[in-house]
C-alpha cells in the first residue's frame, strides 16, 4: 500500500532525527521549508508534525518554531512505566528454565516489575517473532537466551533495533560478542574438561562425546572434551564424537550412537550434551544388553531434576539455575537504573554418582 504524503513527511523527519542529524533541542526546518522540501501542502506538514509531537519526537514553541524533543528519553520512560521485563528463552516447559525464570521473577517482582515470557523452541523464525513482540510491547528490559547461538544470526537486525531503542538487554547461557550487552554464562568448557579428565583418571581411554553444536553451550562443552584429550596426546586417537543440531531427527543420532557402542572396541564411557540426552543414551546402552556403569559409564550435564531418580543415578555437572535467574533479575534492574554491570561466569560443581566406574580390564 502506498504511503500517504503526510506519512512520507513524518517518516523523513523521524529518520533524520533518529540518525542523529538533529540533536535534542535543535531547531527543525520551518513549515514553509518542509513544504518546499517535500512538495506538499501546509496541511500535510502540520499533520505529520502533529503525529511526531504525539510520539514525542518534536515540540513547538509558540512563535519560535519546531524543535527536537527528547524522543529517546520519552521512549525509555514509556518502557519503564510499563514495568514489564521480557524474557526470551529457547525452552520453557521443563528442564532448567523454570528455575531460571523463577529466580528472575523473584528478583524483579521485589522492584514492582512483572514478566512477559516467550519460548522460541530454539527456532530462528520464532525467535524473530518473540523479539518483535518484545520491542512492540515496549518492555522495560530484555533477558535473552539466544537461539542457535553458534550459528550466524539472521535476526541480528532486531538485536540492533533493541540497542537503538536503548532497551536494556542482557544475555543468559550464551551471547553475541558483536553486541555490547552483559551476560551470565557457565564455564561449560572448563567443566566438561574437568569431567573428562576425571573419567581418564579412572582409567577410561575410549570416551564418546555427544554434543549439540548449534548453540554455544554445546560447542564449548565439545571444546572442553577435545581439550582434555589434547592434554593426553597418547590416547587422543581413541576419542570419538557425535555432533547434531537442534531440530534434527534424534532417531538417526541414537542409531549412530548405537552403532558406535556395538563395536568390539567400543567406548567405555559416554559424556552427553545434557542430562536429557543422557537419559536417552542410557536406553540405547541397555538396548544393546550392556550395563551401566559396568560396561559403559555415562555422564550428563545441567543436573536435571529427573536424573536424580534414575537407576543408577546420573553423574552430571550442576547448573546454577535459580542463582543465574536471581542474578539476571538483579542485573537487568541495575541496567534499567542506568548502572554499569559486568558479565558473570559461574564455576560449576561436579556431581559424581554411581553411573561411572573404572572400566573393566
From TrEMBL:
Signal peptide residues on this chain, from the entry's feature table: none
Keyword Transcription: yes
HTH gntR-type domain segment(s): 3-71
Keywords from the named record: DNA-binding, Transcription, Transcription regulation
Matching InterPro entries: AraR_ligand_bind_dom, LacI/GalR-like_sensor, Peripla_BP_I, Tscrpt_reg_HTH_GntR, WH-like_DNA-bd_sf, WH_DNA-bd_sf
Any one of the GO BP annotations: regulation of DNA-templated transcription
Cited Pfam families: GntR, Peripla_BP_3
Keyword RNA-binding among UniProt keywords: no
SMART domains: HTH_GNTR
PROSITE patterns, per database record: HTH_GNTR
Any GO molecular function: DNA binding
Descriptive protein name: Transcriptional repressor
Amino acid at each position: 500500500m502506498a504511503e500517504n504524503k503526510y506519512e512520507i513527511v513524518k517518516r523523513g523527519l523521524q529518520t533524520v532525527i533518529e540518525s542523529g542529524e538533529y540533536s535534542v533541542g535543535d531547531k527543525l526546518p520551518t513549515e514553509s521549508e518542509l513544504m518546499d522540501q517535500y512538495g506538499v501542502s501546509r496541511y500535510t506538514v502540520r499533520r505529520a508534525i502533529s503525529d511526531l509531537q504525539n510520539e514525542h519526537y518534536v515540540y513547538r514553541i509558540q512563535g519560535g518554531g519546531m524543535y527536537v524533543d527528547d524522543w529517546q528519553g520519552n521512549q525509555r520512560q514509556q518502557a519503564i512505566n510499563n514495568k514489564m521485563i521480557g524474557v526470551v528463552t529457547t525452552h520453557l516447559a521443563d528442564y532448567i528454565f523454570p528455575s531460571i525464570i523463577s529466580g528472575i521473577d523473584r528478583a524483579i517482582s521485589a522492584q514492582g516489575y512483572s514478566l512477559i515470557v516467550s519460548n522460541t523452541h530454539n527456532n530462528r523464525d520464532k525467535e524473530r517473532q518473540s523479539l518483535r513482540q518484545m520491542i512492540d510491547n515496549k518492555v522495560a528490559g530484555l533477558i535473552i537466551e539466544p537461539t542457535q547461538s553458534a550459528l550466524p544470526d539472521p535476526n541480528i537486525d532486531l538485536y540492533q533495533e533493541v540497542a537503538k531503542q536503548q532497551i536494556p538487554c542482557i544475555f543468559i547461557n550464551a551471547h553475541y560478542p558483536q553486541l555490547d550487552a552483559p551476560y551470565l554464562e557457565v564455564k561449560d568448557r572448563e567443566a566438561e574438561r574437568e569431567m573428562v579428565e576425571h573419567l581418564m583418571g579412572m582409567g577410561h581411554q575410549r570416551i564418546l562425546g555427544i554434543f549439540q553444536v548449534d548453540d554455544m553451550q554445546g560447542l564449548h562443552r565439545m571444546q572442553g572434551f577435545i581439550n582434555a584429550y589434547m592434554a593426553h596426546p597418547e590416547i587422543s586417537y581413541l576419542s570419538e564424537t557425535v555432533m547434531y543440531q537442534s531440530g534434527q531427527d534424534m532417531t538417526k543420532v541414537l542409531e549412530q550412537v548405537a552403532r558406535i557402542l556395538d563395536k568390539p572396541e567400543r567406548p567405555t564411557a559416554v559424556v552427553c550434551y545434557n542430562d536429557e540426552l543422557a537419559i536417552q543414551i542410557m536406553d540405547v546402552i541397555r538396548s544393546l544388553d550392556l550395563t551401566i556403569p559396568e560396561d559403559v559409564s555415562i555422564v550428563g550435564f545441567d543436573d536435571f531434576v529427573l536424573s536424580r531418580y534414575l537407576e543408577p543415578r546420573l553423574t552430571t555437572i550442576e547448573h546454577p539455575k535459580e542463582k543465574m535467574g536471581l542474578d539476571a533479575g538483579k542485573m537487568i534492574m541495575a541496567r534499567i537504573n542506568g548502572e554499569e554491570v559486568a558479565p558473570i561466569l559461574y564455576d560449576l560443581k561436579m556431581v559424581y554418582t554411581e553411573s561411572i566406574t573404572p572400566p573393566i580390564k
